[in-house]
Design a protein that fits this description.
This protein has 196 residues and is of the alpha+beta class. 28% of the residues lie in helices and 36% in strands. GO terms for molecular function: peptidase activity.
C-alpha cells in the first residue's frame, strides 16, 4: 500500500486496536492464477501473531490457500471530503483508515479447533447482545466450513485523515462531516489530525 509519511501509523497498540475494532475485511489469495477475494470476519489471536476465521467449504478459495502468502485488508470509517469545506484552496479527496496484513495461510478442519474458532467469533460478536446466542454444534454445519489461520508477516497501516492540511481546514472538514452524519470519520480526524 502506498503510504505517504503524514499518514503512516506505526504505533503497534493503535494498529492492533484498529484491527480488533474493524475485523471484517477481505481475504485476497490466488485461485487458479487469478486474484480471489472473500469478505469475512477475522479475529486477532491473543499473542497478536495470527488472524483466525473460517470459510465455507464450498468456497474454492480454501482449495489452494494452504501455504500461500495472502493479503487481508481492513477498513474503518471513510468518506468524501469537499474542498468547499476548507479555508484554503484544495481538491476533492477521500479520507479513510486502512490496514493491510500480509500473512501465511494455513487451513484446517479439525473439529475441536473449528469449534474453538466458531466459539471465539460468537463470543466476540455476541458480547453486546442482551441475550447472547450460544453455539449449538450441528455436525453438518461444522462440516460445511473450513478453518483458516493466518500467520502475520507484515502489517501496513494508513490513516489518511487530513494530516497534511492546516488546522482550520481540518476543523472545517470535521464540522461538515458531523453535519452529514459521518461522526465516526469526524472523530477519527479529530483524534489523528487535530490531536484532540
Amino acid at each position: 500500500m502506498y503510504i505517504p509519511g503524514n499518514f503512516h501509523i506505526k504505533d503497534e497498540a493503535e494498529i492492533f486496536d484498529f484491527i480488533q475494532s474493524n475485523a471484517f475485511g477481505q481475504l485476497f489469495s490466488n485461485v487458479n492464477g487469478r486474484l480471489f477475494s472473500t469478505h469475512l470476519p477475522v479475529l486477532l489471536s491473543e499473542d497478536r501473531k495470527y488472524l483466525i476465521g473460517h470459510l465455507a467449504r464450498a468456497n474454492p478459495q480454501h482449495l489452494q490457500l494452504d501455504g500461500q502468502e495472502v493479503l487481508v485488508t481492513l477498513t474503518g470509517p471513510h468518506g468524501y471530503i469537499s474542498p468547499s469545506w476548507y479555508e484554503n484552496p484544495g481538491v476533492p479527496t477521500w479520507n479513510y483508515q486502512a490496514v493491510h496484513i500480509y500473512a501465511r495461510a494455513r487451513v484446517f478442519d479439525d473439529r475441536e479447533k473449528l469449534m474453538g474458532v466458531v466459539e471465539a467469533l460468537t463470543r466476540n460478536y455476541e458480547r453486546d447482545q442482551a441475550e447472547p446466542w450460544r453455539p449449538a454444534y450441528n455436525e453438518v454445519m461444522l462440516k460445511a466450513i473450513i478453518g483458516i489461520e493466518l500467520e502475520i508477516e507484515e502489517i501496513q497501516c494508513k490513516f489518511k485523515l487530513g494530516q497534511n492540511r492546516v488546522q482550520e481546514d481540518i476543523a472545517g472538514a470535521v464540522k461538515n462531516l458531523r453535519a452529514t452524519g459521518a461522526v465516526e470519520l469526524a472523530a477519527a480526524m479529530e483524534k489523528h489530525a487535530l490531536g484532540e
